[in-house]
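Each letter names a residue; the fold follows as C-alpha coordinates. Both lines appear below:
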Amino acid sequence: DWYHNASCRSWYRRRPLSGAFTHPSRMVYPPGHVYTPEPTPERTPREPKEPRTWEDRVPSREPLDYEVGNFKSESHYQYGPDTYLLQLRDTDFPVRLREYMKVAAKRGPGYSLSLADQNYDWRTPVIRERRRFTDVMDEEIDDERKERINQYGSAEVYSLRRLRRELGTRLDGHAEAEAIIEYKREGQPPFFREKPQQLPIVEDQPAELVCYAVGEPKPTVQWFKNDQVLMESKRVKILEDEAGRSILRFEPAIQMDVGIYKVVARNKVGQTHARARLVLASTPGSPDSPEASEISDTEVLLRWKQPRDDGHSAVLCYSLQYKEADKVDWNDVANNIDHEFYVVRDLRPNVDHQFRLSTRNSIGWSEKGITTPLIKTKETGAPKVQVTRAMKHLQQMTESGGEITADEPISRLDYSVETSPIQWISEGQLTEKYSFVSELARGRFSVVVKGIEKATDKVIVAKLLEVRPDTETQVSREFEALRSLRHERVASLEAAYKPAGSSIAVLVQEKLQGADILTYLSSRHEYTEQVVAMVIMQVLDALQYLHWRGYCHLDLQPDNVVMASVRSIQVKLVDLGSAQRVSKLGTIVEQVGDIEYTAPEVINDEPAYPQTDIWSVGVLMYILLYWDIAIPCA
Protein backbone atom coordinates (compact mmCIF):
# COMPACT_ATOMS: atom_id res chain seq x y z
CA ASP A 1 0.00 0.00 0.00
CA TRP A 2 2.82 2.42 0.81
CA TYR A 3 4.41 1.77 -2.58
CA HIS A 4 1.08 1.94 -4.31
CA ASN A 5 0.27 5.26 -2.67
CA ALA A 6 3.65 6.78 -3.72
CA SER A 7 3.61 5.43 -7.28
CA CYS A 8 3.80 7.83 -10.19
CA ARG A 9 0.21 8.64 -10.82
CA SER A 10 -1.28 11.97 -11.70
CA TRP A 11 -3.18 12.20 -8.42
CA TYR A 12 -0.56 10.93 -5.92
CA ARG A 13 0.40 13.17 -3.05
CA ARG A 14 3.50 13.46 -0.96
CA ARG A 15 4.04 15.32 2.25
CA PRO A 16 5.99 18.58 2.13
CA LEU A 17 9.76 18.26 1.93
CA SER A 18 10.05 19.67 5.44
CA GLY A 19 8.81 16.30 6.71
CA ALA A 20 12.26 14.86 6.07
CA PHE A 21 13.55 16.82 9.06
CA THR A 22 11.39 14.73 11.43
CA HIS A 23 11.36 11.27 9.82
CA PRO A 24 12.18 10.21 6.23
CA SER A 25 9.26 7.80 6.04
CA ARG A 26 6.83 10.61 6.82
CA MET A 27 7.42 12.21 3.40
CA VAL A 28 4.73 9.97 1.88
CA TYR A 29 1.13 10.08 3.09
CA PRO A 30 0.02 6.77 4.66
CA PRO A 31 -2.71 4.70 2.98
CA GLY A 32 -6.24 5.94 3.56
CA HIS A 33 -5.11 9.42 4.68
CA VAL A 34 -7.72 12.04 3.94
CA TYR A 35 -6.08 15.30 2.85
CA THR A 36 -7.73 18.60 3.50
CA PRO A 37 -6.01 21.41 1.57
CA GLU A 38 -5.03 24.53 3.43
CA PRO A 39 -7.02 27.67 2.76
CA THR A 40 -5.68 29.94 0.03
CA PRO A 41 -3.91 32.96 1.54
CA GLU A 42 -5.38 36.34 0.86
CA ARG A 43 -3.77 38.27 -1.96
CA THR A 44 -1.81 41.31 -0.81
CA PRO A 45 -1.87 44.04 -3.43
CA ARG A 46 1.53 45.39 -4.47
CA GLU A 47 2.13 49.08 -4.06
CA PRO A 48 3.56 50.73 -7.20
CA LYS A 49 7.17 51.82 -6.72
CA GLU A 50 8.49 55.06 -8.07
CA PRO A 51 11.52 54.77 -10.41
CA ARG A 52 14.81 55.30 -8.59
CA THR A 53 17.02 58.18 -9.58
CA TRP A 54 20.82 58.05 -9.66
CA GLU A 55 20.94 59.97 -6.35
CA ASP A 56 19.10 57.07 -4.67
CA ARG A 57 21.56 54.56 -6.11
CA VAL A 58 24.64 56.18 -4.59
CA PRO A 59 25.49 54.05 -1.56
CA SER A 60 25.68 55.61 1.84
CA ARG A 61 29.14 56.65 2.94
CA GLU A 62 28.36 55.70 6.55
CA PRO A 63 30.18 54.74 8.64
CA LEU A 64 33.16 56.97 7.96
CA ASP A 65 35.39 55.68 10.76
CA TYR A 66 37.23 52.97 8.86
CA GLU A 67 40.80 52.39 10.06
CA VAL A 68 43.04 51.14 7.26
CA GLY A 69 46.68 51.44 8.19
CA ASN A 70 48.41 54.29 9.95
CA PHE A 71 48.17 57.28 7.63
CA LYS A 72 49.36 60.73 8.56
CA SER A 73 46.73 63.39 7.94
CA GLU A 74 47.87 66.68 6.47
CA SER A 75 44.54 68.31 7.30
CA HIS A 76 44.37 71.26 9.70
CA TYR A 77 40.59 71.30 9.97
CA GLN A 78 39.39 74.03 12.33
CA TYR A 79 36.04 75.27 13.60
CA GLY A 80 34.73 78.70 14.40
CA PRO A 81 33.00 81.74 12.93
CA ASP A 82 36.30 83.11 11.55
CA THR A 83 37.05 80.07 9.39
CA TYR A 84 36.77 79.62 5.63
CA LEU A 85 36.02 76.54 3.57
CA LEU A 86 39.11 75.93 1.40
CA GLN A 87 40.60 73.16 -0.66
CA LEU A 88 42.63 70.47 1.06
CA ARG A 89 46.35 70.85 1.55
CA ASP A 90 46.59 67.44 -0.09
CA THR A 91 44.98 68.59 -3.33
CA ASP A 92 45.37 65.15 -4.90
CA PHE A 93 43.25 63.38 -2.27
CA PRO A 94 39.84 63.94 -3.96
CA VAL A 95 41.35 62.78 -7.26
CA ARG A 96 42.71 59.62 -5.67
CA LEU A 97 39.36 58.99 -3.99
CA ARG A 98 37.56 59.23 -7.33
CA GLU A 99 40.02 56.77 -8.81
CA TYR A 100 39.34 54.36 -5.94
CA MET A 101 35.62 54.67 -6.64
CA LYS A 102 36.15 53.87 -10.32
CA VAL A 103 38.14 50.77 -9.40
CA ALA A 104 35.44 49.73 -6.95
CA ALA A 105 32.82 50.17 -9.66
CA LYS A 106 34.58 47.50 -11.72
CA ARG A 107 35.16 45.07 -8.84
CA GLY A 108 32.06 44.94 -6.63
CA PRO A 109 28.73 43.84 -8.20
CA GLY A 110 26.54 46.03 -6.00
CA TYR A 111 28.79 49.07 -6.13
CA SER A 112 29.16 48.83 -9.89
CA LEU A 113 25.38 48.87 -10.28
CA SER A 114 25.11 52.11 -8.34
CA LEU A 115 27.87 53.80 -10.35
CA ALA A 116 27.00 52.39 -13.75
CA ASP A 117 24.42 55.08 -14.44
CA GLN A 118 25.69 57.29 -17.23
CA ASN A 119 24.38 60.32 -15.37
CA TYR A 120 26.63 59.72 -12.38
CA ASP A 121 28.88 62.73 -11.81
CA TRP A 122 32.45 61.48 -11.47
CA ARG A 123 33.56 64.90 -10.21
CA THR A 124 32.16 63.95 -6.81
CA PRO A 125 33.12 63.79 -4.04
CA VAL A 126 34.60 67.24 -3.56
CA ILE A 127 36.33 67.51 -0.20
CA ARG A 128 37.28 70.76 1.49
CA GLU A 129 38.50 71.81 4.92
CA ARG A 130 37.90 74.80 7.17
CA ARG A 131 40.85 77.02 8.07
CA ARG A 132 41.16 80.07 10.28
CA PHE A 133 41.59 83.38 8.55
CA THR A 134 44.66 84.18 10.65
CA ASP A 135 46.36 80.97 9.51
CA VAL A 136 45.46 81.24 5.85
CA MET A 137 45.95 84.87 4.85
CA ASP A 138 45.12 83.78 1.32
CA GLU A 139 43.09 86.81 0.31
CA GLU A 140 44.88 89.86 -1.05
CA ILE A 141 43.45 93.26 -1.61
CA ASP A 142 44.28 94.98 -4.87
CA ASP A 143 46.94 97.28 -3.39
CA GLU A 144 48.79 94.36 -1.79
CA ARG A 145 48.75 92.43 -5.06
CA LYS A 146 50.17 95.36 -7.03
CA GLU A 147 52.83 95.97 -4.39
CA ARG A 148 53.89 92.32 -4.47
CA ILE A 149 54.14 92.35 -8.27
CA ASN A 150 56.24 95.52 -8.18
CA GLN A 151 58.62 93.98 -5.63
CA TYR A 152 59.49 90.87 -7.67
CA GLY A 153 63.21 90.35 -7.51
CA SER A 154 63.81 92.37 -4.33
CA ALA A 155 64.83 91.01 -0.93
CA GLU A 156 61.49 91.95 0.61
CA VAL A 157 59.38 89.79 -1.66
CA TYR A 158 56.05 89.17 0.03
CA SER A 159 54.90 85.58 -0.13
CA LEU A 160 51.62 84.26 1.17
CA ARG A 161 51.84 82.63 4.57
CA ARG A 162 49.97 79.59 3.36
CA LEU A 163 52.22 79.16 0.31
CA ARG A 164 55.32 79.70 2.45
CA ARG A 165 54.47 77.26 5.25
CA GLU A 166 52.35 74.53 3.71
CA LEU A 167 53.67 71.71 1.57
CA GLY A 168 52.07 69.93 -1.34
CA THR A 169 51.64 66.22 -1.83
CA ARG A 170 55.19 65.74 -3.10
CA LEU A 171 57.23 66.73 -0.05
CA ASP A 172 60.67 68.27 -0.42
CA GLY A 173 62.07 65.54 1.79
CA HIS A 174 60.80 62.88 -0.60
CA ALA A 175 62.33 64.64 -3.63
CA GLU A 176 65.60 65.09 -1.76
CA ALA A 177 65.68 61.43 -0.80
CA GLU A 178 65.08 60.39 -4.41
CA ALA A 179 67.93 62.61 -5.61
CA ILE A 180 70.33 61.23 -2.98
CA ILE A 181 69.38 57.63 -3.79
CA GLU A 182 69.90 58.24 -7.49
CA TYR A 183 73.29 59.86 -6.82
CA LYS A 184 74.52 56.89 -4.77
CA ARG A 185 72.96 54.24 -6.98
CA GLU A 186 75.29 52.12 -9.07
CA GLY A 187 74.52 52.04 -12.76
CA GLN A 188 72.19 54.15 -14.86
CA PRO A 189 68.51 53.55 -15.66
CA PRO A 190 67.56 53.13 -19.34
CA PHE A 191 67.05 56.20 -21.49
CA PHE A 192 65.81 56.43 -25.08
CA ARG A 193 68.21 58.47 -27.18
CA GLU A 194 66.02 57.76 -30.19
CA LYS A 195 62.34 56.95 -29.78
CA PRO A 196 60.23 55.19 -32.41
CA GLN A 197 58.28 57.64 -34.54
CA GLN A 198 54.90 57.41 -36.23
CA LEU A 199 55.40 55.34 -39.36
CA PRO A 200 53.19 55.32 -42.47
CA ILE A 201 53.22 51.92 -44.14
CA VAL A 202 52.30 50.66 -47.60
CA GLU A 203 50.92 47.19 -48.06
CA ASP A 204 53.39 44.60 -49.38
CA GLN A 205 56.36 46.91 -48.83
CA PRO A 206 58.98 46.58 -46.07
CA ALA A 207 58.86 48.89 -43.04
CA GLU A 208 60.71 49.15 -39.75
CA LEU A 209 60.48 50.86 -36.36
CA VAL A 210 63.78 51.87 -34.76
CA CYS A 211 64.69 52.85 -31.20
CA TYR A 212 67.98 53.37 -29.38
CA ALA A 213 68.09 52.81 -25.62
CA VAL A 214 71.18 53.29 -23.46
CA GLY A 215 71.89 52.54 -19.82
CA GLU A 216 74.33 50.90 -17.43
CA PRO A 217 74.14 47.94 -17.59
CA LYS A 218 72.96 47.66 -21.18
CA PRO A 219 69.15 47.43 -21.17
CA THR A 220 67.13 44.68 -22.79
CA VAL A 221 64.45 45.79 -25.25
CA GLN A 222 61.02 44.23 -25.71
CA TRP A 223 58.35 45.19 -28.25
CA PHE A 224 54.57 45.17 -27.75
CA LYS A 225 51.63 45.68 -30.09
CA ASN A 226 48.44 46.99 -28.50
CA ASP A 227 49.98 46.07 -25.10
CA GLN A 228 50.55 42.45 -26.12
CA VAL A 229 54.03 40.95 -26.41
CA LEU A 230 55.14 40.90 -30.04
CA MET A 231 56.68 37.62 -31.13
CA GLU A 232 59.00 37.09 -34.08
CA SER A 233 57.73 35.26 -37.13
CA LYS A 234 58.75 34.61 -40.70
CA ARG A 235 57.55 38.09 -41.62
CA VAL A 236 58.22 40.06 -38.41
CA LYS A 237 61.83 40.30 -37.22
CA ILE A 238 63.41 41.97 -34.17
CA LEU A 239 67.02 42.87 -34.93
CA GLU A 240 69.86 44.88 -33.42
CA ASP A 241 72.45 46.84 -35.40
CA GLU A 242 76.10 47.34 -34.54
CA ALA A 243 75.41 50.54 -32.59
CA GLY A 244 72.84 48.84 -30.33
CA ARG A 245 69.64 50.10 -31.94
CA SER A 246 66.64 47.80 -31.74
CA ILE A 247 64.86 47.38 -35.09
CA LEU A 248 61.36 45.98 -35.52
CA ARG A 249 61.21 45.02 -39.19
CA PHE A 250 58.20 43.98 -41.26
CA GLU A 251 59.03 42.08 -44.45
CA PRO A 252 56.60 43.05 -45.85
CA ALA A 253 54.09 45.17 -43.95
CA ILE A 254 50.40 44.36 -44.27
CA GLN A 255 47.22 46.15 -43.26
CA MET A 256 46.82 44.18 -40.03
CA ASP A 257 50.12 45.67 -38.76
CA VAL A 258 48.39 49.02 -38.20
CA GLY A 259 48.17 49.83 -34.49
CA ILE A 260 49.97 51.23 -31.45
CA TYR A 261 53.38 49.79 -30.65
CA LYS A 262 55.21 50.04 -27.35
CA VAL A 263 58.87 49.37 -26.68
CA VAL A 264 60.16 48.76 -23.14
CA ALA A 265 63.82 49.01 -22.13
CA ARG A 266 64.82 47.39 -18.81
CA ASN A 267 67.89 46.83 -16.71
CA LYS A 268 68.46 46.15 -13.01
CA VAL A 269 68.29 49.88 -12.18
CA GLY A 270 64.94 50.68 -13.79
CA GLN A 271 62.89 50.71 -16.96
CA THR A 272 61.38 53.14 -19.46
CA HIS A 273 59.04 52.84 -22.41
CA ALA A 274 57.96 54.69 -25.55
CA ARG A 275 55.05 54.36 -27.94
CA ALA A 276 54.59 54.82 -31.68
CA ARG A 277 51.77 54.37 -34.14
CA LEU A 278 51.74 52.55 -37.47
CA VAL A 279 49.27 54.08 -39.91
CA LEU A 280 48.25 53.14 -43.43
CA ALA A 281 49.54 55.67 -45.95
CA SER A 282 47.60 56.90 -48.98
CA THR A 283 47.91 59.51 -51.69
CA PRO A 284 47.48 63.11 -50.50
CA GLY A 285 44.39 65.19 -50.97
CA SER A 286 44.04 67.70 -53.76
CA PRO A 287 45.61 71.09 -52.96
CA ASP A 288 43.76 74.37 -53.13
CA SER A 289 44.38 76.75 -55.98
CA PRO A 290 47.48 78.97 -55.72
CA GLU A 291 47.24 82.73 -55.27
CA ALA A 292 49.06 85.37 -57.29
CA SER A 293 50.97 87.62 -54.90
CA GLU A 294 52.86 89.63 -57.56
CA ILE A 295 52.23 90.10 -61.29
CA SER A 296 54.38 91.66 -64.02
CA ASP A 297 54.16 91.60 -67.81
CA THR A 298 55.69 88.14 -68.27
CA GLU A 299 55.98 86.81 -64.69
CA VAL A 300 53.60 85.76 -61.93
CA LEU A 301 54.64 84.91 -58.36
CA LEU A 302 52.35 82.17 -57.06
CA ARG A 303 52.00 81.12 -53.42
CA TRP A 304 49.97 78.32 -51.88
CA LYS A 305 49.45 76.36 -48.70
CA GLN A 306 49.99 72.70 -47.97
CA PRO A 307 47.05 70.36 -48.60
CA ARG A 308 44.73 69.60 -45.73
CA ASP A 309 45.28 65.85 -46.06
CA ASP A 310 48.81 64.54 -46.58
CA GLY A 311 47.79 60.87 -46.55
CA HIS A 312 49.83 60.17 -43.38
CA SER A 313 52.99 60.69 -45.43
CA ALA A 314 55.07 63.84 -45.78
CA VAL A 315 54.52 65.95 -48.90
CA LEU A 316 57.55 65.63 -51.18
CA CYS A 317 56.88 68.09 -53.99
CA TYR A 318 54.30 69.83 -56.17
CA SER A 319 53.50 69.85 -59.85
CA LEU A 320 52.44 73.15 -61.44
CA GLN A 321 50.57 73.58 -64.74
CA TYR A 322 49.22 76.61 -66.59
CA LYS A 323 47.23 77.48 -69.69
CA GLU A 324 45.89 80.55 -71.38
CA ALA A 325 42.21 81.21 -70.88
CA ASP A 326 41.19 80.46 -74.48
CA LYS A 327 43.29 77.28 -74.73
CA VAL A 328 42.36 73.70 -73.83
CA ASP A 329 45.67 71.96 -73.24
CA TRP A 330 47.63 72.45 -70.02
CA ASN A 331 51.38 73.15 -70.06
CA ASP A 332 53.72 71.68 -67.44
CA VAL A 333 55.84 74.23 -65.59
CA ALA A 334 57.66 71.97 -63.12
CA ASN A 335 56.99 68.75 -61.22
CA ASN A 336 59.78 68.97 -58.64
CA ILE A 337 58.78 72.07 -56.66
CA ASP A 338 59.67 71.41 -53.01
CA HIS A 339 58.51 74.78 -51.66
CA GLU A 340 55.19 76.65 -51.50
CA PHE A 341 55.94 79.34 -54.09
CA TYR A 342 57.04 79.59 -57.70
CA VAL A 343 57.77 82.37 -60.19
CA VAL A 344 56.23 81.46 -63.55
CA ARG A 345 58.15 83.17 -66.37
CA ASP A 346 57.84 83.66 -70.15
CA LEU A 347 54.14 84.44 -70.10
CA ARG A 348 52.44 86.58 -72.73
CA PRO A 349 51.73 90.18 -71.66
CA ASN A 350 48.15 91.33 -71.16
CA VAL A 351 46.74 87.79 -71.42
CA ASP A 352 44.52 85.84 -69.01
CA HIS A 353 46.11 82.70 -67.55
CA GLN A 354 44.99 79.88 -65.26
CA PHE A 355 47.08 77.67 -62.96
CA ARG A 356 46.58 74.45 -61.01
CA LEU A 357 48.60 72.20 -58.69
CA SER A 358 48.94 68.57 -57.68
CA THR A 359 50.76 67.11 -54.68
CA ARG A 360 53.05 64.10 -54.33
CA ASN A 361 54.01 62.02 -51.31
CA SER A 362 55.78 58.68 -50.99
CA ILE A 363 52.66 56.88 -52.27
CA GLY A 364 52.01 58.89 -55.41
CA TRP A 365 50.40 61.98 -56.94
CA SER A 366 47.10 63.47 -55.87
CA GLU A 367 44.31 64.55 -58.15
CA LYS A 368 44.67 67.92 -59.84
CA GLY A 369 43.68 70.80 -57.61
CA ILE A 370 41.17 73.57 -58.13
CA THR A 371 41.94 75.87 -61.05
CA THR A 372 42.70 79.49 -60.23
CA PRO A 373 40.49 82.32 -61.42
CA LEU A 374 41.71 84.19 -64.48
CA ILE A 375 45.01 85.94 -63.74
CA LYS A 376 45.89 88.63 -66.26
CA THR A 377 49.47 89.71 -66.86
CA LYS A 378 50.26 93.39 -67.09
CA GLU A 379 51.18 95.48 -70.10
CA THR A 380 54.65 95.26 -71.62
CA GLY A 381 57.25 97.17 -69.62
CA ALA A 382 55.79 96.54 -66.16
CA PRO A 383 58.36 96.03 -63.34
CA LYS A 384 59.61 92.48 -62.90
CA VAL A 385 58.69 90.37 -59.88
CA GLN A 386 61.10 90.83 -56.96
CA VAL A 387 62.01 87.89 -54.69
CA THR A 388 64.46 87.45 -51.83
CA ARG A 389 67.86 85.83 -52.23
CA ALA A 390 66.70 82.73 -50.42
CA MET A 391 63.65 82.37 -52.69
CA LYS A 392 65.83 82.92 -55.75
CA HIS A 393 68.22 80.19 -54.59
CA LEU A 394 65.36 77.69 -54.09
CA GLN A 395 63.89 78.56 -57.49
CA GLN A 396 67.23 77.99 -59.19
CA MET A 397 67.58 74.58 -57.56
CA THR A 398 64.11 73.64 -58.84
CA GLU A 399 64.78 74.93 -62.35
CA SER A 400 68.04 72.96 -62.49
CA GLY A 401 65.94 69.80 -62.67
CA GLY A 402 66.88 68.15 -59.40
CA GLU A 403 64.92 64.97 -58.79
CA ILE A 404 62.87 64.47 -55.63
CA THR A 405 63.51 61.09 -54.05
CA ALA A 406 60.87 59.47 -51.89
CA ASP A 407 63.36 57.63 -49.68
CA GLU A 408 65.48 60.15 -47.81
CA PRO A 409 68.85 58.89 -46.56
CA ILE A 410 68.79 58.06 -42.87
CA SER A 411 71.27 60.27 -41.01
CA ARG A 412 72.51 58.96 -37.69
CA LEU A 413 73.64 61.40 -35.03
CA ASP A 414 77.21 61.34 -33.80
CA TYR A 415 76.97 60.92 -30.04
CA SER A 416 80.74 61.06 -29.57
CA VAL A 417 80.53 64.83 -29.02
CA GLU A 418 79.08 64.09 -25.56
CA THR A 419 82.45 62.68 -24.51
CA SER A 420 84.61 64.78 -26.91
CA PRO A 421 82.92 68.20 -27.04
CA ILE A 422 83.40 70.69 -29.88
CA GLN A 423 86.18 73.25 -29.37
CA TRP A 424 86.51 76.88 -30.48
CA ILE A 425 88.22 77.34 -33.87
CA SER A 426 90.42 80.43 -33.86
CA GLU A 427 92.30 79.94 -37.14
CA GLY A 428 91.14 80.39 -40.71
CA GLN A 429 88.62 82.66 -42.38
CA LEU A 430 84.96 81.85 -41.98
CA THR A 431 84.12 83.31 -45.41
CA GLU A 432 86.48 80.87 -47.10
CA LYS A 433 84.34 77.92 -46.00
CA TYR A 434 80.84 79.42 -45.97
CA SER A 435 78.88 81.90 -48.07
CA PHE A 436 76.02 83.66 -46.32
CA VAL A 437 72.75 84.11 -48.19
CA SER A 438 70.25 86.01 -46.06
CA GLU A 439 69.44 87.21 -42.57
CA LEU A 440 66.88 85.14 -40.68
CA ALA A 441 66.55 86.91 -37.33
CA ARG A 442 68.16 89.63 -35.24
CA GLY A 443 68.43 89.89 -31.47
CA ARG A 444 69.89 92.33 -28.96
CA PHE A 445 73.48 91.23 -29.48
CA SER A 446 73.22 88.46 -32.10
CA VAL A 447 72.25 87.91 -35.73
CA VAL A 448 71.09 84.61 -37.24
CA VAL A 449 71.95 84.18 -40.93
CA LYS A 450 71.47 81.46 -43.50
CA GLY A 451 74.59 80.14 -45.19
CA ILE A 452 75.89 77.50 -47.58
CA GLU A 453 78.98 75.36 -47.11
CA LYS A 454 80.98 75.89 -50.30
CA ALA A 455 82.50 72.42 -50.43
CA THR A 456 79.25 70.44 -50.18
CA ASP A 457 76.48 73.00 -50.93
CA LYS A 458 75.04 72.07 -47.54
CA VAL A 459 72.71 74.68 -46.06
CA ILE A 460 73.62 75.80 -42.54
CA VAL A 461 72.60 78.45 -40.02
CA ALA A 462 75.17 80.69 -38.37
CA LYS A 463 74.55 82.66 -35.21
CA LEU A 464 76.84 85.68 -34.99
CA LEU A 465 77.27 86.91 -31.42
CA GLU A 466 78.94 90.09 -30.27
CA VAL A 467 81.34 89.32 -27.44
CA ARG A 468 81.42 92.18 -24.94
CA PRO A 469 82.18 92.25 -21.22
CA ASP A 470 78.45 92.22 -20.44
CA THR A 471 77.65 89.42 -22.93
CA GLU A 472 80.70 87.20 -22.62
CA THR A 473 79.12 85.10 -19.87
CA GLN A 474 75.98 84.40 -21.90
CA VAL A 475 77.99 83.55 -25.03
CA SER A 476 80.14 81.11 -23.08
CA ARG A 477 77.07 79.61 -21.41
CA GLU A 478 75.34 78.95 -24.75
CA PHE A 479 78.50 77.44 -26.23
CA GLU A 480 79.04 75.20 -23.21
CA ALA A 481 75.47 73.95 -23.46
CA LEU A 482 75.59 73.26 -27.21
CA ARG A 483 79.06 71.80 -27.58
CA SER A 484 78.25 68.46 -25.94
CA LEU A 485 74.54 67.96 -26.75
CA ARG A 486 73.26 65.56 -29.41
CA HIS A 487 69.59 64.70 -29.72
CA GLU A 488 67.06 64.39 -32.51
CA ARG A 489 64.92 67.16 -30.94
CA VAL A 490 67.72 69.66 -30.23
CA ALA A 491 69.44 71.73 -32.94
CA SER A 492 73.00 70.40 -33.30
CA LEU A 493 76.13 72.54 -33.17
CA GLU A 494 78.48 71.68 -36.06
CA ALA A 495 81.33 74.15 -35.50
CA ALA A 496 82.23 77.20 -33.41
CA TYR A 497 84.50 80.03 -34.61
CA LYS A 498 86.12 82.63 -32.41
CA PRO A 499 88.88 84.38 -34.39
CA ALA A 500 91.74 85.73 -32.34
CA GLY A 501 91.47 89.46 -31.77
CA SER A 502 87.86 89.60 -32.99
CA SER A 503 84.81 90.58 -30.98
CA ILE A 504 82.54 88.26 -32.98
CA ALA A 505 81.84 84.61 -32.18
CA VAL A 506 80.06 82.38 -34.69
CA LEU A 507 78.10 79.24 -33.86
CA VAL A 508 77.43 77.11 -36.96
CA GLN A 509 74.37 74.90 -36.55
CA GLU A 510 72.32 72.57 -38.69
CA LYS A 511 69.83 74.25 -41.00
CA LEU A 512 66.23 74.07 -39.92
CA GLN A 513 63.30 75.39 -41.91
CA GLY A 514 63.50 78.68 -40.04
CA ALA A 515 59.79 78.96 -39.26
CA ASP A 516 58.85 78.85 -35.60
CA ILE A 517 55.88 76.81 -34.50
CA LEU A 518 53.40 79.72 -34.47
CA THR A 519 54.39 80.82 -37.98
CA TYR A 520 54.06 77.27 -39.26
CA LEU A 521 50.63 76.67 -37.73
CA SER A 522 49.34 80.02 -38.98
CA SER A 523 50.30 79.01 -42.54
CA ARG A 524 48.10 75.91 -42.42
CA HIS A 525 44.47 75.86 -43.45
CA GLU A 526 43.58 74.33 -40.11
CA TYR A 527 45.07 72.20 -37.38
CA THR A 528 43.66 70.03 -34.63
CA GLU A 529 44.44 69.22 -31.02
CA GLN A 530 46.28 66.14 -32.31
CA VAL A 531 48.80 68.40 -34.07
CA VAL A 532 49.36 70.34 -30.83
CA ALA A 533 49.76 67.06 -28.95
CA MET A 534 52.46 65.92 -31.40
CA VAL A 535 54.34 69.22 -30.99
CA ILE A 536 54.18 69.08 -27.19
CA MET A 537 55.30 65.43 -27.16
CA GLN A 538 58.39 66.31 -29.21
CA VAL A 539 59.15 69.30 -26.98
CA LEU A 540 58.90 67.03 -23.94
CA ASP A 541 61.30 64.57 -25.60
CA ALA A 542 63.84 67.38 -26.02
CA LEU A 543 63.41 68.55 -22.42
CA GLN A 544 63.71 64.98 -21.18
CA TYR A 545 67.12 64.76 -22.86
CA LEU A 546 68.24 68.12 -21.45
CA HIS A 547 67.19 67.08 -17.95
CA TRP A 548 68.94 63.74 -18.43
CA ARG A 549 72.13 65.68 -19.19
CA GLY A 550 71.57 67.94 -16.18
CA TYR A 551 70.41 71.08 -18.04
CA CYS A 552 67.27 73.19 -17.75
CA HIS A 553 66.19 75.26 -20.78
CA LEU A 554 64.56 78.10 -18.74
CA ASP A 555 63.50 80.05 -21.86
CA LEU A 556 60.99 77.83 -23.62
CA GLN A 557 58.71 79.93 -25.83
CA PRO A 558 57.25 79.66 -29.35
CA ASP A 559 60.24 81.43 -30.94
CA ASN A 560 62.55 78.69 -29.66
CA VAL A 561 60.49 75.81 -31.07
CA VAL A 562 61.48 75.69 -34.75
CA MET A 563 60.25 73.41 -37.50
CA ALA A 564 62.80 70.88 -38.71
CA SER A 565 60.55 70.09 -41.68
CA VAL A 566 57.67 71.97 -43.24
CA ARG A 567 56.35 68.75 -44.75
CA SER A 568 55.54 67.03 -41.46
CA ILE A 569 55.29 67.86 -37.76
CA GLN A 570 58.95 67.71 -36.75
CA VAL A 571 60.23 70.35 -34.31
CA LYS A 572 63.53 71.06 -32.56
CA LEU A 573 64.58 73.29 -29.68
CA VAL A 574 66.95 76.16 -30.45
CA ASP A 575 68.55 79.05 -28.54
CA LEU A 576 70.08 77.45 -25.48
CA GLY A 577 71.61 80.74 -24.36
CA SER A 578 69.54 80.62 -21.19
CA ALA A 579 70.11 76.93 -20.44
CA GLN A 580 71.81 76.25 -17.12
CA ARG A 581 72.80 73.22 -15.12
CA VAL A 582 70.15 72.51 -12.49
CA SER A 583 70.36 69.93 -9.72
CA LYS A 584 67.43 67.79 -8.62
CA LEU A 585 67.95 69.29 -5.16
CA GLY A 586 67.34 72.78 -6.57
CA THR A 587 69.58 75.52 -7.98
CA ILE A 588 69.22 79.30 -7.87
CA VAL A 589 69.20 80.53 -11.49
CA GLU A 590 69.13 83.92 -13.14
CA GLN A 591 65.82 85.11 -14.53
CA VAL A 592 65.97 85.33 -18.32
CA GLY A 593 63.43 85.56 -21.11
CA ASP A 594 59.91 86.91 -21.06
CA ILE A 595 58.02 86.87 -17.79
CA GLU A 596 54.96 85.32 -19.49
CA TYR A 597 56.85 82.05 -19.93
CA THR A 598 58.91 82.09 -16.73
CA ALA A 599 58.06 79.73 -13.88
CA PRO A 600 56.97 81.32 -10.55
CA GLU A 601 59.93 79.91 -8.60
CA VAL A 602 62.37 81.64 -10.95
CA ILE A 603 60.52 84.95 -10.64
CA ASN A 604 60.55 84.67 -6.84
CA ASP A 605 64.31 83.93 -6.80
CA GLU A 606 63.64 80.47 -5.41
CA PRO A 607 65.54 77.30 -6.38
CA ALA A 608 64.74 75.91 -9.82
CA TYR A 609 64.35 72.20 -10.46
CA PRO A 610 64.35 70.16 -13.69
CA GLN A 611 60.54 70.23 -13.65
CA THR A 612 60.65 74.04 -13.77
CA ASP A 613 60.51 73.82 -17.58
CA ILE A 614 57.09 72.17 -17.38
CA TRP A 615 55.52 75.52 -16.47
CA SER A 616 56.74 76.92 -19.80
CA VAL A 617 55.44 73.82 -21.59
CA GLY A 618 51.99 74.49 -20.16
CA VAL A 619 52.07 78.11 -21.31
CA LEU A 620 53.24 77.02 -24.77
CA MET A 621 50.43 74.48 -25.05
CA TYR A 622 47.87 77.09 -23.97
CA ILE A 623 49.10 79.50 -26.65
CA LEU A 624 49.00 76.86 -29.38
CA LEU A 625 45.42 75.98 -28.44
CA TYR A 626 44.00 79.44 -27.75
CA TRP A 627 46.46 81.82 -29.45
CA ASP A 628 46.63 84.01 -26.37
CA ILE A 629 48.85 84.44 -23.34
CA ALA A 630 47.55 82.36 -20.45
CA ILE A 631 48.57 84.89 -17.75
CA PRO A 632 48.82 88.46 -19.11
CA CYS A 633 51.56 90.43 -17.40
CA ALA A 634 51.57 94.19 -16.91
Remarks:
- The chain has 15 helices and 28 strands.
- The first helix runs from residue 2 to 6.
- The longest strand covers residues 205-216.
- The two ends are 109 Å apart (CA to CA).
